[in-house]
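Hi P.,

Sorry for the delay on this. The queue was packed all week, but I finally got your sequence through. Input first:
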Amino acid sequence: MPTIHPTAQVSSEAEIADDVSIGPFSVIEGPVKLAAGVKVGGHALVTGRTHIGEASDIGWGAVVGADPQDLSFDPSVDSGVIIGPRNTLREYVTVHRGSKAGMHTVIGEGNFLMIGVHLAHDVKIGDGNILANNVLLGGHVTIGNKAFLGGGSGYHQFIKIGDLAMIQGTSAVSQDVPPFCTAHGRNTLAGLNTVGMRRAGFDAATRAAVKRAFQLIFQSGKLRKEALAEAAVIDWPEAARRFLDAIATPSKKGVMSP
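Then the structure:
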């Protein structure tokens, strides 16, 4: 049987695996699904059509599945939150549900969200990302895999953050950060996350190719469309193509520059 503190409130609609742990004064409200090994700390709220994957840890005071902070939102909308396996959401993390019928805020696998992180409606996060204390993501932000977002940084709605991006704490980001790049301050690229690429297993030849692509796009003096046209006839390794694709298909906010 699940381990449920006697002060917790658990809805009869909820589906809870046998080895789930729910702490004191927590509320599991509505058709929530908690998979095997999930831990919910005290004073947390998990509500609505929220699915939490195996071995995930929901910290004290976290709120998962609450309504979006959107003045036009209709609370009767059937939307939710999907959290994959082995995620850690520390104290006071907030994750809001999707803003339209059938839409979800989605967290992949093995992410670490530190104290006070906020994920607005319809955010999509991949796998293995680290969001430091008080990172704030606006609605519809998309993050790839293994990115690091520094503490206190804020992200405008609809932008894209690529794989292995690293962003300095307290940054104000309202444009895309391409894969493998570092950024700081207000929409400023600092260069490539070569250390992160090496640690992630990218060999020297691949790292060099991504560096050549970065130089072609940002340091050749060519217009962006000219640099992309030149890049299109070159045979790049997969990682460099991923970088170039992010440049060629940005969000409506565009891609930041050095």
